[in-house]
Design goal:
single chain; about 475 residues; alpha/beta; Beta-Lactamase; Rossmann fold; Helicase, Ruva Protein, domain 3; 4 domains; 5-stranded parallel beta sheet; 21 helices; about 45% helix; elongated; binds adenosine-5'-triphosphate; binds magnesium ion
Length: about 475
């Protein structure tokens, strides 16, 4: 404003009375609040009641430091520094506001302050919703990326739980390379299935995948099984000799299962093949070059074996280039029902009707600890599909040990107030949503919840709205 127009304005305003000034203030769409030096609210305009829903008489004359001890206006009074477009929160009303404020000086002393602000709760709420939606979108995108990265051959490996992602994504990355891979994990987690998926996801997929179960072959035979022999290598050797598993895998992949069960003597022999990718047959003198990819697997604690000297360190490091860890089923319960349904489909393929799991069975399967992992689940589903006589698997069709587990289940403490209240709250929210055809706004009004606490509860109680 230039000096001239300022002078005109002052002249005009002088002619007006105070009432007119207040009228102007009351028609401003923002809240105008004036405090004296004690933080007493000496003036608020009409917008206050309109925007915050609190009558002017309720606050006028009260001290702000008693109502909102953390309000920005109090800070302005204290510091004498004006603020511009700053976010603040009115804790007493649970509202977010944004505005500006400046101190009033008289003879160099702070005598009060003016605060001009507006309610931005809706914007904050929308922002929060947006943030939540973004998180969901990011999560789904992440999941999609993970799935897209997996080669087709990984379809054989059922289960996409978050606990598996890292392993599957790494397996997918390493599959097309020739790198040595070692798969770790408890018995029955599907190490064999993953090895096949990796082989089928590589350029060697049309060449053989030779599987050697190192634990199942007697020590005396393992060497000739793996390395082959020349005619006359030992008494009883076949005429014409025999190709070993390594040579049979030429161009393809050799899967050395249960490698932790190999003797130290065999480990030493294996080391040179893993290192040099060449071998000599038993009784032979020729060095045979191999084009093979090695995948090993074990459920043994190799690190412990290293410590006690029952696994060779050099072999360990040769094999441990890309370790893939498959978590036990109890650490990825999200996969249980997918796997169960998959097996069920396989075992009931010939039936004319579709066989499904009863809700009680589903609950029991998800809650069980599966010490035998996926293999045990596979056996349970096979058992159930044999004894079932209708389209639904019931609890009575499950093996006794699973049913027993259920009987031993510890009863919840029925006097735990927090759990009981939470349970009741959840039921009430679900009922209200159901009654109102999932209309969230109607449900939240009916329940008397603010938008944010309504959504917080949906999230906390894992209530999904379709
Ligand atoms: N993710 C999976 N998808 C489909 N089938 C699976 C999966 N995991 C395991 N299986 C099935 O479970 C059984 C056990 O799997 P697998 O033999 O691969 O386990 P493992 O980890 O090699 O166990 P072990 O250490 O005892 O040899 C197999 O019949 C396999 O088909
Ligand atoms: Mg196996």
């Amino acid at each position: 404003m230039n000096i001239e127009s300022h002078a005109i304005t002052t002249q005009v305003i002088k002619k007006w009375d105070q009432a007119l000034l207040f009228k102007i203030l009351d028609n401003i769409q923002d809240i105008v609040m004036v405090l004296d030096s004690n933080t007493t609210i000496v003036y608020i305009n009409n917008a206050y009641a309109k925007i915050l829903g609190v009558s002017v008489s309720k606050v006028l004359g009260r001290r702000l430091d008693e109502i909102e001890p953390n309000a920005l206006a109090i800070e302005i009074l204290r510091s004498g520094v004006p603020t511009h477009n700053v976010r603040d929160r009115l804790e007493s009303l649970g509202l977010d506001v944004m505005g500006s404020g400046f101190p009033l000086f008289e003879e160099g002393k702070i005598v009060g302050c003016v605060s001009i602000f507006n309610n931005i709760s809706e914007v904050v709420e929308l922002n929060r919703d947006l943030q939540r939606t973004k998180e969901v979108a990011d999560y789904l995108q992440h999941k999609l990326n993970q799935l897209e990265q997996l080669p087709l051959s990984f379809k054989e490996y059922v289960g996409r739980s978050p606990a598996l992602w890292e392993t599957l994504a790494l397996a997918a990355k390493v599959a097309p390379t020739d790198s040595t891979v070692i798969i770790r994990g408890e018995s029955g987690v599907g190490k064999g299935v993953l090895a096949r998926a990796i082989h089928n996801g590589s350029r060697r997929k049309d060449k053989p995948l030779i599987i050697v179960n190192c634990a199942a072959i007697p020590e005396a035979l393992l060497e000739s099984e793996l390395f082959g022999y020349e005619e006359g290598a030992f008494s009883g050797a076949k005429k014409g000799g025999k190709l070993g598993k390594f040579e049979l895998a030429h161009g393809g992949t050799i899967f050395l299962d249960e490698i932790g069960d190999m003797s130290l003597n065999m480990q030493a022999k294996l080391l040179s093949v893993v290192q040099e990718k060449e071998l000599e047959r038993l009784g032979g003198t020729k060095t045979i070059k191999l084009d093979i990819r090695i995948i090993a697997a074990t459920n043994r604690d190799l690190e412990k074996m290293l410590a006690v000297g029952s696994f060779r360190q050099d072999l360990y490091y040769r094999l441990n280039i890309v370790p893939l860890y498959l978590p036990p089923l109890r650490e990825r319960r999200e996969d249980i029902l997918t796997l169960a349904q998959n097996f069920l489909l396989q075992f009931t393929e010939e039936k004319e009707y579709n066989v499904t799991l009863s809700p009680q069975v589903a609950e029991l399967l998800v809650g069980y600890d599966w010490p035998g992992n996926v293999r045990e689940l596979q056996n349970v589903m096979e058992h159930a599909s044999i004894v079932e006589s209708g389209p639904q698997i019931e609890v009575r069709h499950l093996p006794v040990n699973l049913r027993e587990g259920r009987m031993e289940e510890v009863q919840e403490n029925p006097y735990d107030l927090k759990t009981a209240v939470a349970k009741f709250e959840r039921e009430l929210i679900v009922a209200s949503l159901e009654k109102n055809s999932n209309n969230r706004s109607v449900a939240m009004t009916e329940l008397g919840l603010s938008r944010s606490s309504f959504y917080d509860k949906l999230h906390r109680y894992n209530i999904k709205i379709s």
